[in-house]
Queue: 3 jobs
Job 1
Amino acid sequence: MKKILNYINGELKEPKNKKFLDNVNPATGQVYSLVPDSSEADVSEAVAAAEQAFPAWSQTSVETRVRFMRKIADKIQEKHDALTLAESIDSGKPVSVSGTVDIPRSKTNFEFFADAMTQFHGETFQTDTRALNYVTYSPLGVVACISPWNLPLYLFTWKIAPALVAGNTVVAKPSELTPMTAFLLSEIAIEVGLPKGVLNIIHGRGPEVGAPMVNHPSIKAVSFTGSTATGRHIAQSIAGSFKKISLEMGGKNANIVFADCDFNKAVETTVRSSFSNQGQICLCGSRIFVEKSIYEKFKAALVEKTLQLKQGDPLKPETQQGAVVSKDHQDKVFSYIEHAKGEKATILCGGKKAEMGGEFAGGYYIQPTLIEGLSYQSKVNQEEIFGPVATLTPFESEDEVLKMVNSTKYGLAASVWTQDLKRGHRIAQKIESGIVWVNTWMLRDLRTPFGGVKESGVGREGGKHALEFMSEVKNICIGME
Ligand code: NAD
């Protein structure tokens, strides 16, 4: 069986304890490869390698670092099909998603930050005729990048690319549930000749690998994407260390549909925003609020379109819905559906395991599920489910919908559907979330900072902000009198 290996100091290695975890294909429930069950000893080796590589890497020219980023991007392009396949098998997501969203975006991440670095610069401020101030940025040292399973290579590279191009060296950990594309990235790093120790990738579980990484005294910054519970744990464990920290965490995003919306576009996009990647995108809108006057019509159209989603083998190009990532996650999602039933909600469609048969009989499939009749305060409407489950709730006024939308502890993203631009702007200002889309969804300009508010995020990633986050800032003031 294929063994995934750690990537330390330019070499692919088994973990020191020789232990491996099963890597399961969620579409079949079968183990198809093995992933290192690494420990603190591997983390220490990786941090030491990154520390040793830092002086030389941080002093390479921007041009050299940018060239490496472009070479990695080119390799991702060259290996697009293999990476797409690997990510689909690892995560259960359809190739139609991994091949058009995840893998192209992973390539773009390296290209974007390569371009951004060529434009990144310090600033000068003149204090009348008395002084000239200049602000410089320099790399921090060794930084830790930790990512989740839902967009495995996309989110992994979103952290690694800005860290490397800014001149830091990196110790990174992908999710133990979806390690394969990170492993392929380590092979790419070797192929493009990235200097030893500049990037190190350690596989394994959170407490065994992630915790020693973030707590290692030589780690200067932590960039984490994952659940709010883990983010909180990390923040608490490094409080007082004064490491830079960026946490991108959970969400419970709202999708607000006003009666004056472009109806067909709103329905079509709502199906996508509810169920893309089986609802396992942090930006998916899992709470759909619809203005009362079009509620029944919208509901009927949404249910009809949802029932048309093709669920099946993730590797078939026509498949729109694959499997959720693991048995544990499947159980978690079903527990919320059961909770909704206990609250006498109506399951409009879905609600059950999707029976696939054949080799997919043991896969972790869930029918796309729409639920109505729950209070906005129900646990199903307050907690992150992160699966193919969305609720529908009618509303009568802007004030009423804003109260419901802002009632959760989360604040990651929201969508608003209205043709009234004034209302679009007004509502967008009042929604407590880091991102608001008006008449669109998941459209990202990478120059904009990305992140949530409330318990969805601390710090922001993306654009120039990512390069600033990965840098030490110094203000030098020259007296001129
Ligand atoms: P998770 O928090 O369980 O794990 C995320 C990563 O942290 C994994 O690599 C895991 O091994 C590691 N980890 C676990 N315990 C750790 C510890 N004690 N110390 C250090 N690292 C540790 O999250 P998940 O289940 O992999 O991902 C799903 C979550 O990610 C959802 O909540 C989703 O909303 C969130 N997410 C957020 C964004 C965003 O940009 N805000 C994007 C994608 C996913």
Job 2
Amino acid sequence: MLEFSQNGDERGHLVVVEGNKDIPFDIARIFYIYGSDPDVVRGQHANRRTQFVLINVAGSCKVKVLDGKGNEAVFVLNRPHTGIYLPTMVWKDMYDFSEDSVLLCLASEHYDATEYVRNYDEFVKMVNEESE
Ligand code: TYD
């Protein structure tokens, strides 16, 4: 998890995220997800090349991260100054979106559908082959 400074004063808060300073990569792409129902599961993929930082700038959601080697962890994103860093080749599910959830995603690469691994069994095979 990453904690960003809030730069708060009587006017409110201003959170800054600078590539290669506050997060460990240069930002090539941003996108954001909102209007997802609470029973929706998004993500469900791993990325060969892209690293991400996810920040719920409004509302909340959960992120389940799996390494394909038997380890998994669930993170709650519910503060606009807290993010999660996701390295390459981890499986992620985003779910439990609150009605007001706006999930900001910072990515290290431009979009390339071919670097997404969307089959879980294939992902498990890839990470276990890599470490042999
Ligand atoms: P998808 O990867 O399914 O979203 P999520 O990871 O939240 O489950 O993406 C939804 C659609 O948006 C899909 O048609 C691909 C497209 N898309 C882009 O064109 N560029 C992007 O940077 C992203 C993340 C998605």
Job 3
Amino acid sequence: MYSDRRRVLVTGSTSGIGLSIAKRFAQLGHDVALNSFESEADVHAVVQSVSYGATGIVRYFRADLADPGQSFGLVGQVIESFGLLDILVNNAGIQKVAPVEAFPPADWDRILAVSLGSTFHTIRAAVPGMAQRGWGRIINIASAHGLRASPFKSAYVATKHGVVGLTKSVALEVAELGITVNAICPGYVWTPLVAGQVADQAKVHGISENQVIRDILLAPQPTKQFVQPEEVAELAVYLSSDMARSITGTAISIDGGWTAK
Ligand code: NAD
């Protein structure tokens, strides 16, 4: 599928979907830059798990993507270390469930900064090198919430709609430069991000945690099953291939039929 070994950065890749994407690219022999805001010591075991069986370089880059300077600088660090960056996967994201009138403004700011702000900053840092070589892949992990809304998720829904809009706009700008820009829009994937919101959802809806899983999380997904992180990883690999060169500016759903409704 690949003509070359690629250099890949996956933001927020010590857990969940990002970790699966990083592992898959590493298994395929590419050089992989892992990232989160955690210390090297805290992520040591995770980095080892990605390195296992990898034939390319696997390296960890600490950066708090709530900070615009660190987001922009992360790409520079990866380019300095790997020589260049071919594939940028903007995956880092956080969640908070609360009614809009009680939504803490600090959480609003952080959610927008980590997902939408950092996606803008990493893209603007990565595009010049990709343009120079005439090849690049930018994949933004948005969400079904980039296409549909749910109550009590004002910051997350606004962020993910913003990520889809940013994806389209940049895709048009770089369309003639050999760079594709796409958003992946997963439905519910069972990861720490989803597990962590079950208690909050139970509180705001006044129901049990089991009811949250059945009546809220899986209710919009016609398959009644969580998407697996590995499925999202495989889609990211395909979008990074040469065969996907004509796919750009899209928001591709992987949501068990959610957005067909
Ligand atoms: P997760 O909580 O399992 O992993 C999030 C990752 O982001 C972790 O590695 C964490 O360290 C990192 N991160 C968080 N804040 C950061 C910061 N400030 N700086 C750097 N790294 C930071 O989450 P997940 O469920 O795997 O979600 C990954 C992405 O997929 C997010 O953008 C999320 O919105 C999106 N998504 C998730 C689902 C789902 O159901 N899990 C559905 C649709 C979209």
